């Protein structure tokens, strides 16, 4: 019986993270559930909360021991997600809690590459200021500057120079 309950609580935790429902998350965590549980795509509650722009939820999960560098089945981290979506406050929170600026997903992309490709230039500035490596190449041998140029993001190209 306990096994069925933990599977259900895992699903509830993931759903609560998507909604930013802090009281439900606190209740589930008080029962000792694995905070880095993954859904069918490999998303952890932290990845989901960050991607959905739930700052306070992300803060709670990190404070409760969530892995800032956990990644989904494509190798994407929470920092990559917020760099793509454009949430600098959450990016700052993740970095302050040990997120690796230079992790690469399955195709070799980094958070900095996502920010540059999607025109999130406030994130490009933040990631560079916090020490992101702009010399990393993706699996095609492209740099963040190459990707910014491909997308016509001239501001990012200037920031990267």
TrEMBL record:
Q: Where are the ANK repeats?
A: 8-40, 41-73, 74-106, 107-139
InterPro entries for the chain: Ankyrin_rpt (IPR002110), Ankyrin_rpt-contain_sf (IPR036770)
Q: Does the keyword Nucleotidyltransferase apply?
A: no
Leader sequence segment: none
Superkingdom of origin? Bacteria
Tell whether Repeat is among the UniProt keywords. Answer: yes
Protein keywords: ANK repeat, Repeat
Known PROSITE patterns for this protein?
ANK_REP_REGION, ANK_REPEAT
Give the Pfam families listed for this entry. Ank, Ank_2
* Entry's transmembrane regions: none
Matching PANTHER family: ANKYRIN REPEAT DOMAIN-CONTAINING PROTEIN 39, ANKYRIN REPEAT DOMAIN-CONTAINING PROTEIN 39-RELATED
In Swiss-Prot or TrEMBL terms, this protein is called Ankyrin repeat domain-containing protein
Q: What is the lineage of its organism?
A: Bacteria, Pseudomonadati, Bacteroidota, Cytophagia, Cytophagales
């Amino acid at each position: 019986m306990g096994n069925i309950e933990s599977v259900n609580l895992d699903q509830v935790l993931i759903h609560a993270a998507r909604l930013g429902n802090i009281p439900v998350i606190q209740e589930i965590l008080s029962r000792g559930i694995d905070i880095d549980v993954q859904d069918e795509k490999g998303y952890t509650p932290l990845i989901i909360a960050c991607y959905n722009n739930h700052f306070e939820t992300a803060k709670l999960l990190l404070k409760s021991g969530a892995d800032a560098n956990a990644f989904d089945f494509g190798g994407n981290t929470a920092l990559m997600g917020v760099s793509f979506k454009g949430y600098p406050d959450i990016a700052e929170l993740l970095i302050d809690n040990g997120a690796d600026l230079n992790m690469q997903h399955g195709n070799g992309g980094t958070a900095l590459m996502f920010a540059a490709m999607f025109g999130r230039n406030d994130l490009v500035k933040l990631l560079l200021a916090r020490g992101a490596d702009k010399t990393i190449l993706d699996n095609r041998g492209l740099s963040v500057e190459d990707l910014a140029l491909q997308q016509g993001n001239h501001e990012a190209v200037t920031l990267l120079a």
